[in-house]
């Protein structure tokens, strides 16, 4: 049976480590870390995500600066909000919750965020820093995967890794992070020929295709480390049911083959949230000349 | 026999196309494109490269703003030079010739260049734009390789590509460009296990390892497209000789196996220089609302 890469447990552990760091640094910093989440409109999933992030901030001792703006807010108003947060010395991190209502230019808004407060790691400057191997906030989901692998003691150097999916949120930065850990990385995508053969060659498989149950036993060689980034709600079987959550991997088929497997839910998901906190506390520590926060988690 | 991917001929062809574009746009723009090359100190190879670039500018109708500063120039003076060029409306492109004398912080100088004038495509913002698939100046050597492949009609979609080397100058941006052309790309490097097996799996092999004669017949499957980015001068055989140029690939062994091969010299090298001109003319055209320049070459 595959060892379970328990993101829920690790996220809770990292929250405790962060909370201790925040408490220890409060004296020197003179203020707690601050995270501003900008939410626009009424996307119901976003409401849940933002509430989760705020609760997590509370547990760690990060002050939340929540901004909830109506769906018809115009670009200029949002730009001003971002500029104010850029200048606000109590704010270490700024996150623009996606998706945005139609008519807003998300890219322009992202570009307006001070790259050193871009705790989502999505500003092109931070992606460029990642590519160059320089310091800067790292994209949360792939950074969470790296933390899971690292704390599980999985060696990456020289490993053949396949990242399935090339989104800017996950696949692309994931490939770069694995490569910086000296894995030999291939990126597969919708145009890849014979995806299953490529998967079977991999010793580490990160699946971030956004397609429920895309890969199963046919794609896994025995002993592969399997990281499932997908999260989807299956159609309800009966009235009143909410439907079960599943990933991009058919876990039931894979768990006897893989050496390690991230569960869905409870694998990569909780790591994404905690890495947002890590990025925020890191920005705070840097601006107050405190010791680096969790430096071993890149 | 492998078809020869003749970079010298294509570079000459692209220079003619650029020259025509510059001539046609002069009226609307009111001035020619301008390229500023900053050279510091007395590296002899740099002197040759800079002279080559200036001559190429002359052929195309780009005005050169050469700045040659003494080896003991301090960081502050160079920063001022860059800031002046950033503000100079006659300058479309700024290139900082490497290597710099010891004691100068090349990264800080690179960061000071206006990203929209960074015709070397090395500013982290431009690397981030490349990662995000956004417009911006592209790193010249990999862009030159893409142009060679494109003009030779080599289809990339779905092809298995291996990039050997992960430098920020070549390997990393090369992998991203091939991926954006829908190839399935793997990046190999010094920690890669069984490099030869990885090479033999590739349908397109780009070798940018910086090691003379690293790969030969043992690394090539029949029908592979082989791009050799290396250029090295071999030790002279006799007194008075200069020594022959060679690449990272042992061309003599490979040319009966490969479907296409870039010669050294005359392959990738001339493409690097011409892509610098392409980037400069593109910046000029954009700032004067002229039609896009060679848009099919990404």
Description of the structure:
Two copies of one chain form a homodimer. Chain A is an alpha/beta fold and 298 residues long. The first copy, chain A, has two domains: 29-120, Rossmann fold, CATH 3.40.50; 140-270, NAD(P)-binding Rossmann-like Domain (Rossmann fold), CATH 3.40.50. Chain A contains ten helices and eleven strands. The first copy, chain A, has helices spanning 7-29, 44-60, 75-87, 106-112, 124-132, 140-151, 171-180, 195-201, 251-254, 268-287, and strands at residues 3-4, 34-40, 63-69, 93-96, 160-164, 184-188, 204-207, 225-228, 232-233, 245-246, 260-261. A six-stranded parallel sheet of chain A has the order 1-11-8-7-5-6, with helices on both faces. A three-stranded parallel sheet of chain A has the order 3-2-4, with helices on both faces. In chain A, strands 9-10 form a two-stranded antiparallel ribbon. In chain A, strand 5, helix 7 (171-180) and strand 6 (184-188) form a beta-alpha-beta unit. The model of chain A has no long low-confidence stretch (mean pLDDT 96). Chains A and B meet through helix 5, helix 7 and strand 6 of A and helix 5 and strand 6 of B.
- The tally of strands of chain A reads 11
Helix/strand order of chain A, N-terminal first: EHEHEHEHHHEHEHEEEEHEH
Overall geometric form of chain A: globular
The averaged pLDDT of chain A comes out at 96
Kindly report the name of the CATH homologous superfamily of the largest domain in chain A.
NAD(P)-binding Rossmann-like Domain
* Uncertain residue ranges of chain A: none
Which chain pair has the greatest contact?
A: A-B, 32 and 30 residues
Radius of gyration of chain A: 19 Å
């Amino acid at each position: 049976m595959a060892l379970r890469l328990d993101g829920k447990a690790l996220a809770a552990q990292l929250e405790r480590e962060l909370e201790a760091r925040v408490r220890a640094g409060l004296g020197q910093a003179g203020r707690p870390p601050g995270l501003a989440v900008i939410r626009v409109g009424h996307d119901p999933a976003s409401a849940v995500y933002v509430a989760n992030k705020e609760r997590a901030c509370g547990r760690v001792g990060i002050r939340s600066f929540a901004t909830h703006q109506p769906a018809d807010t115009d670009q200029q108003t949002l730009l001003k909000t971002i500029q104010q947060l850029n200048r606000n010395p109590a704010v270490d991190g700024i996150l623009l919750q996606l998706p945005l209502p139609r008519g807003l230019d998300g890219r322009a808004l992202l570009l307006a965020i001070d790259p050193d407060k871009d705790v989502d790691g999505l500003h092109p400057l931070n992606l460029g820093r990642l590519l160059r191997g320089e310091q800067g906030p790292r994209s949360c989901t792939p950074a969470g995967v790296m933390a899971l692998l690292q704390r599980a003691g999985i060696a990456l150097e020289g490993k053949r890794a396949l990242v399935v999916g090339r989104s800017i949120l996950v696949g692309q930065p994931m490939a770069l992070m694995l490569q910086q850990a000296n894995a030999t990385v291939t990126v597969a995508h919708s145009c890849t020929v014979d995806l299953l053969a490529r998967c079977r060659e991999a010793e580490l498989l990160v699946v971030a295709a956004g397609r429920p149950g895309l890969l199963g036993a046919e794609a896994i060689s025995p002993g592969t480390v399997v990281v499932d980034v997908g999260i989807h709600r299956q159609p309800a079987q009966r009235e009143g049911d909410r439907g079960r959550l599943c990933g991009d991997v058919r876990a039931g088929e894979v768990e006897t083959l893989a050496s390690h497997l991230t569960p869905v839910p409870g694998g990569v998901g909780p790591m994404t949230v905690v890495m947002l906190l890590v990025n925020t506390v890191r920005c705070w520590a840097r601006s107050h000349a405190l010791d680096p926060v969790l430096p071993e988690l890149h």
